[in-house]
C-alpha cells in the first residue's frame, strides 16, 4: 500500500491573479493577490486531497516510477525483461535451463521456463478474504516474492522492487500458467485484477485457489501478457532487436541456460544457447573480424572482499585487427554502460601486467616507443562479469558500479591469470604485444598528422569549405545541414532550402571507407576534411585509442545533420559510408541523436485537382480508401434496404480495413480462409480439447476443401486447431493456438464479425459518383463492396513512383523532403551496440565471406534497386 499526495494543479495566470513581477522595482517583495475563488481552492486541500493507492493502482498511476519511460519503448521492453529476470533467477538458483520468449502476432508476449513454477498453494496467512494463492499474491502485491530472503536466491539480477506484479498492473491481459506437481494451474488478469475468480471453502475458510485445467509431466512458469495501450499510447510495438540484444547477453552471462526468441509476426527465430559463457560472448562480438590471438584469455574465480562478501569474477579478452576498444561490463547480469569499480580493477591489472611483460622482454625499448593504456586497449574485445551480493550503483539506472569492495577481487584474479597466460602462450603474447607497439607508433604518427592539419587550420575551423552553402542562423540548436551526393543534387537543394537555418554540403563521389583506414589516413581525404571542417567538432573520441583529443561536441555548428541521398544502390552505399564515418569517428553525435536520414516520398498521387506526396504503401492505402468513399453509398438490401453513407460508411470501412490488415499480416503463417471465416462469424473456443473439437466442426462447415481437427498439443500442454490442405500432392498444415484465440488479433476479427455479419441482405448494392456518372454494382457482402470501391478509386487516380532526388525540382524537394512542417526524418539511434558493431564490420570490413553470406540471405528483401 502506498500513500502519496494528490498533485495540486498550477494556478492559471490571469490579469487579476498571479503575476511574474517582471518590470517591478522590487519583485522579490511582490505578494500575489489571492481572490475569493482562489482562497476557496486552497481550503479544499484537506484530508480528502490525500489519496491512498492500494495494490497495483500506484503502478498504473505512475508507471514511469517503476519501469521507465512509457512513450519511447524503454518501459514497454522492460516488461519483458522483468519476467525473464524471474526465470534467470531460477537458473542462478540451479532450477531452470530453458527459457522461451515469444512475440505473438497480436503484439502480446509470452515467457515460458522450466523452473520450479511459482508456488500455487493457498497462503493461509493471507490477510485478504478470500485467502489467495501464493501465485496471485506474487502478481498483485508490490514487493511480494522470494528475492527478499537470501535463503531463496543468493544473487539476483531481477531485484528491481516490483517484478512481474508491475507487468500485471500494466497489461490489458495477463494469463499465468504454472506447471507444478503434475498439474496445470491457470490464473487470468486484466489490468491487475483477477478475472473469473474461483472461490471455495476449505476447513471452514473461504479460499480462492488457481484453476486446474489438466495434468502434465512438465514443470515451470508461463506468463503471457498484452501491454495496455492506455498506458503505452505512443510506442506499443515490441522490437525484436531490442529483445534479442538483452536475451543474447543473458544467455552468455548465464552459462548452461538456453534462451530462445520467436517472433510470430515475421517468423524470425533465434536460439541463444550461450555456449562457452563469456568466452562465447567475445567470440560472438568478434565474428567477422580479423582475430589476432586465437586463444581467448579467460579468467574465472571468486574472492572474499574486504567486507567478507564473496565476489564472483569472470573475464574474457581477445584482440582483433581493428582500432576500436569494446569492453562490456555486467554486475549480476545488469549492464554498466559507464563501467565502475570492476572496470577500474580490470584496467589496473591489465596495465600493470602487460607493462611488466613488455619491460621484461624489452620490446618497447627496441621499438623506441612509449606504451600507454590506450595502446593496450586498441582492438580489444572484452566481457567482464561479476556476481555481487547487494551491489551499489551510482544511480537508479545502474549504469555505473560503485561498490568499492569489487575492485580488489577483480584486480587480483585478472593480474595472476593474465600474467600466467602471457607466460604460457608466448605465440599469443607476441601477437598481442606487437599489436600494442603498432598502436603506439600509429598514435605518434596521428599526433604528427594532426599537428600538420591543425597548422593548415582544418581542425581549428579556420575558414569553411567553399562548396558549403551555409545558413544565416548562428545558434547551432536552430541549424541543420543536409549532406547530399553530387553537385547536381546539391544545386537543387541549395535552390529549394530555407537559407535562414538550412545549410547544404554536397560531397563528390564516395567518401573514404573509415572501417579500413587509420586516423592519419583520414586526414589526407579531401571529402572527410571538408565534412569535419563544416561540422566544426574536430574528429575522434576524446581520450580514445587514436591518441586524438580534438573532438568537442560543444563546437558542433548544426544540431541536425541530415543525410540525403538517392533511393538507389549508389545512394545507399554513400549513406552507409557516411554512417560508418559517424559511428566510428564521431560516435557522440550518434549517441546524442544529431544524425538523421531524410525520407523523400515514395509516391506522388493525383485525384482530380488534389496532389499529394505519400511516404509508403500504408499511406497509399489510406489515400485510396478516402477517395473510394467520396459520393459512395452502400445499400444494405433486404427489407430495410438502409443506405450507408457519410461518417457511418467511413467508420465501417475503417473497421473493415483493420480486419483486412490483420488477415494480410497473419496470412503468411495462418490459413487465410480460416481467418476470413472468423471475420465472417465463426467463433472459436480452445480452452479444453472438447471445446476445440466443437470449434473444429464449426470451422469445417466454412472450409469444405480443408480438413479441420481439434487436438491437444503436447509441446505446449494446450488445445489447438489444426487446418490441413493438400497442395500439389503435399499436405500443408497451419495451426490456430489458444494464445491466438485469447489475443488481440482474434478479438479484432471477432469484433468485425459482430459488425458485418448480416449487415447486407438480398439485393445489396453499392454506388459511387453523382448524376450521370454514378456507377453501381451488386454485392453479396461488405468485403465485395469495399473491393469494388477501391478498384473504382484506383481508376480515378494517377500515381508516380519516385526513385531519386534528381527527379524532383527545387520546389518539390522543399515541399516533400526539406520543409519541417511536412517532411519525415529518421533519427539514427543505436539500440544494440554489439549488433551495430558487427553490421559495420561485416559490411565495411576486410572479411568477404560474412558479407557474401549477408547478401545471399537478404537479397530478396532489398528494395529500391534500380536495374
Automatic annotation (TrEMBL):
Q: Where in the cell is it found?
A: Cytoplasm
For molecular function, the Gene Ontology terms on record are: ATP binding; DNA binding; DNA topoisomerase type II (double strand cut, ATP-hydrolyzing) activity; metal ion binding
Matching entries from PROSITE patterns are given as: TOPOISOMERASE_II, TOPRIM
Tell me what else is known: Few gyrases are as efficient as E.coli at forming negative supercoils. Not all organisms have 2 type II topoisomerases; in organisms with a single type II topoisomerase this enzyme also has to decatenate newly replicated chromosomes.
> Which residues constitute the signal peptide according to the record?
none
Which family is annotated? Belongs to the type II topoisomerase GyrB family.
Stored NCBIfam families: gyrB, PRK05644.1, PRK14939.1
Names of the cofactor(s): Mg(2+); Mn(2+); Ca(2+)
List the protein's name: DNA gyrase subunit B
Source gene?
Answer: gyrB
According to its UniProt record, where is this protein mainly located? cytoplasm
Q: Which organism is it from?
A: Rhodoferax fermentans
Functionally, this protein is described as follows: A type II topoisomerase that negatively supercoils closed circular double-stranded (ds) DNA in an ATP-dependent manner to modulate DNA topology and maintain chromosomes in an underwound state. Negative supercoiling favors strand separation, and DNA replication, transcription, recombination and repair, all of which involve strand separation. Also able to catalyze the interconversion of other topological isomers of dsDNA rings, including catenanes and knotted rings. Type II topoisomerases break and join 2 DNA strands simultaneously in an ATP-dependent manner.
Enzyme class, top EC level, equals: isomerase
